[in-house]
Design goal:
Elements: E1 2-8, H1 12-28, E2 34-37, H2 42-48, H3 54-62, E3 65-70, H4 85-95, E4 100-106, H5 119-122, E5 126-132, E6 144-149, E7 155-160, H6 167-183, E8 187-192, H7 198-211, E9 218-223, H8 224-233, E10 240-243, H9 245-258, E11 266-270, E12 276-280, H10 297-310, H11 314-329, E13 332-333, E14 343-344, H12 347-357
Parallel strand pairs: 1-2, 1-3, 3-12, 5-10, 8-9, 8-10, 13-14
Antiparallel strand pairs: 4-5, 4-11, 6-7, 11-12
This protein binds nicotinamide-adenine-dinucleotide.
């Protein structure tokens, strides 16, 4: 199994180093793993003047799976838009056709106190958000900032983007979501804003068409504003949510707080053949970068997802997930999930603890 390791910026290299420790431990247990590193994001810009250097894209194409840290940082915010780190990430998702983004939100019982919601609201939470990743307003054309006549005479700048989904884009992500629902509690909620957006109206129609192939799955529909409210009010009503790129971006960050910290949530981004890029859902956290205090568990759990979804090895996935469960049960906490009485550990000590428990 060849894994492209793209650490990126900010806390990226710190958290990815912990996931690599886990991979190395599995390797010394006999699993065949080959890893090769390459720069992306700000690191790509620094190394090659491009947030997605051609050699990085080549490596990602040749690999069986990609492990990514995070990209971005204030030092890159003034670059021209195509050179900014986030563009590198959008491009690699698009180039590799990684259209299905799987974001589980699971609460470890011991972390109930770290959630900002009451323990009884979140305990036992186990849901999956399937977010479409290569369409929507993030990619739709036309987009831009230009000068147009203003209603009061004269002219002014306007910014615009296009929310756009084709039937085939909705259909393929809907199939992924239904298949995942079939393996879970067979409940799928499609989230859109069909009361005001034509793009959402089409989304809903196509999801209903696809549902005919999955009669065992109970399909429901919810407007995104209500979904945001329900996620906080009664999150356990959800099993699988399927939604578009921008709604999924926002809802999954909200869902992350249910599980205690954004540092706990892994993700998988898959293509048609289950080749995937695996990354934590959080960003590069420049506010804590370089201090060895970031939570590496989302990145380590992303490796577990890699084994489950791309390598088809649920045993190894389960081993990694159980090691994380044990570390949590043993009371180890990075600062973001620390509560009174627990053992506060650094990012690297957390990585060591997971390896010890593998
Ligand atoms: N996938 C990605 O690479 C990705 C995603 C989101 C944001 N970004 C980029 O990251 C940069 C920072 O963005 P932001 O501050 O909005 O979001 P962020 O996710 O980086 O950070 C939000 C907050 O969560 C904390 N946090 C994040 N990950 C953590 C971890 N593993 N352990 C402990 N605390 C953690 C941060 O310290 C910060 O307070 C920006 O340049 C943004 O564009 C990248």
């Amino acid at each position: 199994m060849k894994i492209a390791v793209l650490s990126g910026d900010g806390i990226g290299p710190e958290i990815v180093a912990q996931a690599v420790k886990v991979l190395n431990a599995l390797k010394s247990d006999g699993l065949k793993i080959e890893m090769e590193a390459a720069p992306i994001g700000g690191a790509g810009y620094d190394a090659a003047g491009d947030p997605l250097p051609a050699s990085t894209l080549d490596l990602a194409r040749a690999a069986d799976a990609i492990l990514l840290g995070a990209v971005g940082g204030p030092q890159y915010d003034l670059l021209e838009r195509p050179l900014r780190p986030e563009r590198g990430l959008l491009r690699i998702r698009k180039e590799l056709n990684l259209f299905a983004n799987l974001r589980p939100a699971l609460l470890y019982p011991e972390l109930a106190a770290a959630s900002s919601l009451k323990p009884e609201v979140v305990s036992g939470l186990d849901m999956m958000i399937v977010r479409e990743l290569t369409g929507d307003v993030y990619f739709g054309e036309p987009r831009g900032i230009e000068v147009r006549p203003s209603p009061n005479g004269g002219s002014e700048r306007v910014g615009f983007n296009t929310m756009l989904y084709s039937e085939s884009e909705v259909r393929r992500v809907a199939h992924v979501a239904f298949r995942i629902a079939m393996k879970r509690d067979r409940k799928l909620c499609s989230v859109e804003k069909a009361n005001v957006l034509e793009c959402s109206e089409l989304w809903k129609e196509v999801v209903i068409e696809v549902s005919k192939d999955y009669p065992e799955v109970a399909l429901s529909h919810m407007y995104v504003d209500n979904a945001a409210m329900q996620l906080i009010r009664a999150p356990k009503q959800f099993d699988v949510i399927v939604t578009g790129n921008i709604f999924g971006d926002i809802l999954s960050d909200a869902a992350s707080m249910l599980s205690g910290s954004i540092g706990m949530l892994p993700s998988a981004s898959l293509d048609e053949n289950n080749k995937g890029m695996y990354e934590p859902i959080h960003g590069s956290a420049p506010d804590i970068a370089g201090r060895d205090i970031a939570n590496p568990l989302a990145t380590i759990l992303s490796v577990a997802m890699m084994y489950r979804y791309t390598f088809g090895d649920s045993r190894t996935a389960g081993r990694i997930e159980n090691a994380v469960k044990r570390v949590i049960a043993q009371g180890y906490r990075t600062t973001d999930i620390w509560t009174e009485g627990a053992t506060r550990v650094s990012c690297s000590a957390m990585g060591d603890a997971v390896v010890k428990n593998l």
